[in-house]
Specification:
The structure is a single chain. This protein is of the alpha/beta class and 288 residues long. The protein has one domain (3-211, 255-282): NAD(P)-binding Rossmann-like Domain (Rossmann fold, 3-Layer(aba) Sandwich). Helices cover 40% and strands 16% of the residues. The strands form 2 sheets. Strands 3-2-1-4-5-6-9 form a 7-stranded parallel beta sheet, with helices on both faces. Strands 7-8 form a two-stranded antiparallel ribbon. Helix 2 (36-47) links the parallel strand 1 (27-31) and strand 2 (51-55). The radius of gyration is 19 Å and the shape is globular.
Length: 288
């Protein structure tokens, strides 16, 4: 996309004369998009004209999000699967190109927590966090290299989702924090190696966003790992009941999935055409 094309797109959108959206005709893969932030990203990208590839380990959820987008007038397909399966990145990338002919954006959003104090974290807990948050995004990006590393003038961006845990560490999350710090390094390397092809790469580090990972662990949300049920969320209790968890957030509240999806969208649009290698903290001001 030339500078003139970018300017025309932005001006048209701001004036209300660009009804097809800021990502019209572009193709976006969004992992972990069967629910939560990923689902909100998929829906928002579709509303901005992108052809969306919904992918999630839960096939029923992945298929439903895709069906809902199509029913609303957007364009989406579902390619469900486990991103830690060594064969899946290639399946995902080739399925995308077969359906839509190209790839413009990859949003590596899929992930979960598997908490434990440092002295209690098992090898399994450690390894799965790096597999999900580092190895799988790397393999997806690598599989897409032959489609992204072209001087074709297309608007292209890789978004890797990190966390404030990765930037600042967090008690009980040595494995998750390490993985989320690692994805920042991968992002910067993509930006440096592929910038010559017009590919931008940025990281979004979310703070407290209302999802199954931040709700009370007692609510019962869980994920199954090798047949074992792993509880998700933050432990709560009577001792913490009177504490305001948002006291150090200037906006005074948690974010919601729909609003934080806007940060991911923004970085993929022509509005961010000169932003690459950046980590955007989406925290409501927490940590400033």
């Amino acid at each position: 996309m030339s500078a003139a094309d970018r300017l025309s797109t932005i001006q048209g959108h701001l004036s209300g004369n660009y009804p097809k959206g800021l990502l019209a005709g572009e193709v976006a893969i969004i992992t972990g998009s069967g629910q939560g932030i990923g689902k909100s990203c998929a829906e928002l990208f579709a509303r901005e004209g992108a052809f969306v590839v919904v992918t999630d380990i839960d096939a029923a959820k992945s298929d439903q999000v895709s069906a809902d987008i199509n029913a609303a007038g957007g364009k989406a397909i579902s390619i469900a699967g486990d991103i830690t399966n060594p064969e899946f990145p290639e399946i995902l990338v080739e399925g995308t190109v077969k359906a839509f002919g190209k790839i413009n954006h990859i949003v590596n959003n899929a992930g979960f927590t598997y908490d434990g104090m440092i002295h209690k974290i098992t090898d399994k807990q450690w390894d799965i966090m790096l597999a999900v948050h580092n190895t799988s995004p790397f393999k997806i990006v690598r599989a897409a290299a032959k489609y992204l590393r072209k001087k074709d003038g297309e608007n292209k961006c890789v978004i890797n989702v990190s966390s404030t845990s990765g930037l600042h560490g967090n008690i009980g999350q040595a494995n998750y924090a390490t993985a989320k710090a690692g994805i920042v390094g991968l992002t910067k390397t993509i930006a440096k190696e592929w910038g010559v092809f017009g590919v931008r790469a940025n990281t979004v580090a979310f703070g407290w966003v209302d999802t199954r990972l931040t709700r009370a662990k007692e609510s019962g949300a869980a994920i199954e790992i090798d047949g074992q049920k792993v509880a998700l969320g933050i432990p709560t209790g009577a001792a913490k009941a009177a504490v305001n968890p948002f006291a150090d957030i200037p906006l005074g509240r948690a974010g919601n999935a729909d609003e934080v999806a806007g940060s991911v969208l923004m970085l993929c649009t022509p509005l961010a055409s000169y932003i690459t290698g950046h980590t955007l903290e989406v925290t409501g001001g927490r940590g400033i």
